[in-house]
């Protein structure tokens, strides 16, 4: 499933008009809730919400080359996922680092309040990573289409 998310994000990143949010959902043939994904891109960065079997996560893909060995070290050091919607207070969430097709990817358990803020965003969605006092990989994403895409993902996840 992780490869599915990365492949979808790679398509969005390569797509010239990728400034809006896109939704894709697939129900489980076994009643396990399926997978629902809302994704957007800005330059070489991808961001989205993924619901798999009732668990909602944020997923952030960066253009940085990253190996599985580096991911182990990064997870030991602790990495935070930062999210700010419009001018609301930022969310700081513990992130889990891995390497997706050789790129740095961070996943974090999605706070339903933060997910709803993204769904209802009016002007901006900003994402960054932090380790200690260091901030890196900051990107801003369009809100265009977030209401429908994120709303569909939340509905499919039962997190409305």
Going across the major beta sheet, what is the strand order?
1-2-3-4-7-6-5-8-9
Strand content: 35-45%
Order of helices and strands: HEEEEHEEEHEEH
Major sheet attributes: 9 strands, antiparallel
Supply the helix-strand structural class.
Answer: alpha+beta
How would you concisely characterize the structure shown here?
With 160 residues, this protein is of the alpha+beta class. The chain contains four helices and nine strands. Strands 1-2-3-4-7-6-5-8-9 form a nine-stranded antiparallel sheet, with helices on both faces.
Question: How would you characterize the overall build of this protein?
Answer:
- This protein is an alpha+beta fold and 160 residues long.
- Helices cover 27% and strands 44% of the residues.
- The protein contains four helices and nine strands.
- It has helices at residues 2-14, 68-77, 112-119, 146-157, and strands spanning 22-26, 35-42, 45-52, 55-65, 79-85, 91-100, 103-109, 125-131, 134-141.
- A nine-stranded antiparallel β-sheet has the order 1-2-3-4-7-6-5-8-9, with helices on both faces.
- Helix 3 (112-119) packs antiparallel against helix 4.
- The longest helix has 13 residues, at 2-14.
- It is globular and about 35 Å long.
- Residues 1-7 and 9-18 have low confidence and may be disordered.
